[in-house]
Amino acid sequence: xxxxxxxxxxxxxxxxNRENPIDVFPTVWKKLNDLVNNDRxxxxxxxxxxxxxxxxxxxxxxxxxxxxxxxxxxxxIEIVKEILKKxxxxxxxxxxxxxxxxxxxxxxxxxxxxxxxxxxxxxxxVSEEKLIGNKIKIPFICNDYDIESINVIDMxxxxxxxx
Length: 163
Prior knowledge:
By secondary structure, the chain is an alpha/beta fold. The longest helix has 13 residues, at 74-86. The chain is built from eight helices and five strands, in the order E-H-H-E-H-H-E-H-H-E-H-E-H.
């Protein structure tokens, strides 16, 4: 049994809903619910804000899984400021919400908080963004902070899910 805690980006939930809709693949979403209920699948509130711009099944799922979405802390604000100073291109200025730096900040915060690392739980960012050269994307910044970044299918593999 893995002890990973996954920090989910909007892109993974959107892709999963697009390719494995909740009404057609309920088993996938039940397994995600189990991770949420066991505090092993989390995301910053900014991810919820991005998803709630649409009124669809994913939005309804997000509303039923509020426990997953963590409030922003002072420490995360400090981390996001540091990230933006180093990598201003991570933010897309044409968007109302941009969760990317907050996903990374939550991963960094939970990885370095002594109270949350008591049981040696590995924090892993889940995003559909890919590492492409020096493009300022989630995986690139995660590498800089020694945080593993995988896609949602790799998360399924890590968990040993066969669906």
